[in-house]
Amino acid sequence: MRKQQFIALTYGWTVILGLIFISSIVLALLLKFTPLNEPTLSWVTLVIGLITLFIGGIVAGTKGKHKGWLIGGITGLGFTFFTFAVQYLGYQQTFSMEQSLNHLGFILVAVVGGVIGVNAVGGNENN
What three-state secondary structure class fits 127? Predict the structure, then answer.
């Protein structure tokens, strides 16, 4: 893997983790100070995750400039691996079927974001 692609992945993962951290704080404050409950926010968290992975894929694709589908896919896989590692090592639980489907969607959205990011900066024809 070229250095430029690794830097692109690092940017994508950093953006994703930053946005997830910020959205977690906002959602925690909403749960604390509004009458919203956890089941109400389950769809909101899924949408926030999809948007975050899409933005992370765009950032990684923009920085990578080539092969947006690959950079976006690796960005999504990296996030999924990080989430799985935290869940498995911290809570001794594997992904449920619903979580697996959610993360498949996250990876696909990151791939689309990577392709859009590469094409936004005018990458080569091998995207």
Answer: coil
